[in-house]
Amino acid sequence: MNTASAESLQRYQDSLARLRPQLTGTEQPWLMNQRRGAVESLARLGVPQRRQESWRYTSLERLLGQGFVPAAGTIAPQDSDLESLLLPKLDTWRLVFVNGRFAPNHSDLDGLPPGVMATSLLQSIGSNPIVASRWLGRAAGAPEHAFSALNTAAIQDGLLIHLPRGLQLERPIEVLYLTSAPGCATVVHPRALVLLEAGARATLIERFAGHDHSLYFNNALTEIFLEDGAELEHQQLQQESPAAFHLHSLFVNQNGRSRYQNTGFILGGTWSRNEIRVDFLGTEARADLQGLYVTGEQQLSDVHLDIRHTHPGCTSRADYRGLLHGKGRAVFDGRIIVNPDAHKSDAHLHNANLLLSRNAEVDTKPQLEIYADDVKCSHGASVGQLDPAQLYYLRSRGIDAAQARHMLCLGFAGEILERCRIEPLRETVRTAVAARLAQPMETAGRVQS
Question: Model-level pTM greater than 0.85?
Answer without folding.
Answer: yes
